Known about the structure:
By secondary structure, the chain is α/β, with parallel strands linked by helices. It is built from 16 helices and 16 strands. The strands form five sheets. Strands 5-6-16-11-12-15 form a six-stranded mixed β-sheet, with helices on both faces. Strands 9-8-7-10 form a four-stranded parallel β-sheet, with helices on both faces. Strands 1-4 form a two-stranded antiparallel ribbon. The structure holds pyridoxal-5'-phosphate (PLP). Pyridoxal-5'-phosphate (PLP) binds near residues 251, 253 and 366. The site of pyridoxal-5'-phosphate has 21 residues, from helix 5, helix 11 and helix 15.
Amino acid sequence: MTHNDLQATTLHHRIAHLPVDEAGYYGRFGGAYIPEILYSNVERLKQAYHRYADDPEFNAQYERLLRDYVGRPSPLYRADRLSQHYATNIYLKREDLNHTGAHKINNAIGSVLLAQRMGKHRIIAETGAGQHGVATATVCALMGLECVVYMGATDVARQRPNVERMKMLGATVVPVTSGNATLKDATNEAIRDWCCHPDTTFYVIGSTVGPHPYPEMVARFQSVISREMQSQLLGQTGRDYPDAVIACVGGGSNAAGAFYYFIDRPEVRLIAAEAGGKGVDSGETAATIQKGTEGIIHGARTLVMQTSDGQITEPYSISAGLDYPGIGPLHAHLAQTGREEVIAINDDEALRSAYLLTSLEGIIPALESAHALGVLDHVKFLPDDVVVVNLSGRGDKDMETYLSQKEKGKSQKY
Ligand SMILES: *Cc1c(COP(=O)(O)O)cnc(C)c1O
């Protein structure tokens, strides 16, 4: 049994910059399709979120940790040699310089602070590449909370350094062997755990997915990215908005944060890079916006990669963080209404872009972020354009993949 009647409660608070209604719908996408057993849990989360979203004390603590613990604001760096290569002005929003190496920590801090306010002592999370697991385990260590991370067994094998980090941070890592043993399966397992421990446990979701209010809440915790961009752009270019913002989308949280304050500014192009895998029509892809059809996954109505009778299709991407068969409802909506442009970047294109950034700028990007960089080969910008690429994470976790691909592709030039 699923139901979707969360709109009954009063709403104390509206988010100005997201096209979301009180029931968590972004156009036709979103909502909260959850089993009965989770209903009161999701309801309590929603109440706590609305209570603390504008609470000065909560926000002061959140902002202080972002500044002193994460190291924010993250720099906005004009990449001169990359700009020259593409004959335009490219700025990198350096989320890779955050503590733990990606944007995930912004949300982990906000969510765990909320869990603490709600009196929960046990935190669970799902993780793909391991970045969200590491971020959550990190904040749990900081706050002295128990942490259990579900991770597909395939990802446990291909993201070993992050598994070791989570363990050192005191988290229990549970390898999940169902399905493809990747992110979707880890998420299923985390939801199952939440159903079994609804009173003690807070589920920290790592992207703008899941039932309302998660997509809105996670976008809000990530919105600091575009908030900082505005003042940084103003200082560096004399204008508080760019001509385009480019971000990769797995579930869509770094993109949601990078787009947030520009969604209602039509002069800013919003460009989402999804994972093409071996090609959008190869059958081995994670290009959910282009290949997905409407369905329900992990508590939200959105675009889902599925067969005609509703069986989820296994996605594929070289990048564990983009290997997800759904997409956050915000992006499904922005893409459907034409506000957001969507470009699929294939494995080989992402690899080439990663090597290009490394050789020109001395920055090794996460494989996920390399998909955003891949857009620069697809879209021709003007010499005066200001283009911000959200560099969602650093490449340390991907070294094995980079080196093995380089071996394989010796004849090709990456
Ligand atoms: C997790 C991750 C992503 C994908 O998740 P979104 O929610 O789509 O941002 C992208 N980049 C990095 C570095 C990640 O760790």
